[in-house]
């Protein structure tokens, strides 16, 4: 049993915080805490749910279209996959600070009483400045504490989270943190309460302990900092994950967890190759991951190449040699390390280029341009012959390609890529049918099929797209209970959609609808899987 300090609730609490055996210094001494299960859990269960995290802060791009209180992202998706958002929801600007927007008077009032009344006027003075989300989150913490709106036990628990000050000092980034902290103090008018070192430590704490604020379909909206959530450690093979619905946060199990077992979530993209995961965790969170997956090193499917490095085509070997000789960054990126042989170094250089291109696509706002760049990246993966379809960043390129194709209205191509992902990628990367990413991506595919079902142009001869859409919604309806929980807004919206579709089939086909659907689904499923082969890469 883990040695524990006081945690919220009684012995019957679903979780408790205690010293973690994985957070150790160079001498093996335990230096950090983690979250542990207070009882046994099965897969697909809620460990705990909270009404709202201590603070959350929106990405700058989300400020104009997202409620700063309930985090409803009002921008509807082109295919209606965010059904859980009430149609017609709009946000209005706070007349005082001109920074935040709210979807209702009730939300504005709630945010006002939670602390906005103490920052609104101050924020107005800087309404022309773009303040990073971590600065806004730190400002909110300081202001609310100064005005007695964060109770001692919560504040104390927050202080227990590591600041990683010494690590920032070592990597030379502490100067930048002190500078941001200076602005944070000044804009929040809290210099009379907290000294500059305290603010710098708090800012550093926000940087290393916050999670991504997300929609139920995992669209990123900003950051969340909460002392309880901040205590959950990382594993690349996690047994839990976080689901958010508006301000509500649930910690859910991905696998069964036994009483007193540590609860882990994943901080990064777990499907990345070993060296990339290690590099990201050590540069952003300052630790060497020794999770069960990392202990297996680079021997897992995420690190599998489609061919042996030595079998790479001659022309690609030449491309790689040019990169190495010219000293390209991508050829020296430790996150792309493959091995010491010259062929492995060549493969690493090409992999470095693929990830570099992927990072570049993330900074392109125009969808048409993004599509071009993404397709370049996908061609590199495909034509080099090195990548399996599920090896990163090939799979991530496709996810982004689908999103951008939907934005520009290229729905049929998007569906073919969705079919490819459904057939070849999701079962490999997320073997559990209730895995939240698999569920959300299948939902996106279902809603796209449903959208196309209402179009006059047939997708292809013999393809009955309404039946395919129905099959996918049925699948999501089953899996969403595990991924999001039966009573979640997401699962409820999926169930409502399924019932609506079934009613339509009944009105069209009469009483035999269920039987006709049951017979129609297997051949349509086959045709849908074949669509996965329509796209060359
Ligand atoms: C969000 S905090 C988690 C709570 C933290 N253990 C504490 O006691 O404050 C993130 C930090 O925890 C530590 N950590 C998280 N997961 C870890 C892991 N798998 N191995 C080693 N350290 C880890 C790292 O120091 C990381 O920067």
UniProtKB/TrEMBL annotation:
Q: Got a GO cellular component term for this one?
A: nucleus
Q: In what residue span(s) does the SET domain sit?
A: 13-268
Where in this chain does the record put each MYND-type domain?
Answer: 67-120
Q: Which InterPro entries match?
A: H3K4_H4K5_MeTrfase (IPR050869), SET_dom (IPR001214), SET_dom_sf (IPR046341), Znf_MYND (IPR002893)
What molecular functions are annotated in GO for this chain?
A: zinc ion binding
Matching entries from SMART domains are given as: SET
Highest taxon of the source? Answer: Eukaryota
PROSITE patterns given for it?
Answer: SET (PS50280), ZF_MYND_2 (PS50865)
Which SUPFAM superfamilies does this UniProt record tie to the protein? SET domain (SSF82199)
Keywords from the named record = Metal-binding, Zinc, Zinc-finger
Is this entry keyworded Ribonucleoprotein? no
- Stored Pfam families: SET, zf-MYND
How is this protein named in the record? Answer: SET domain-containing protein
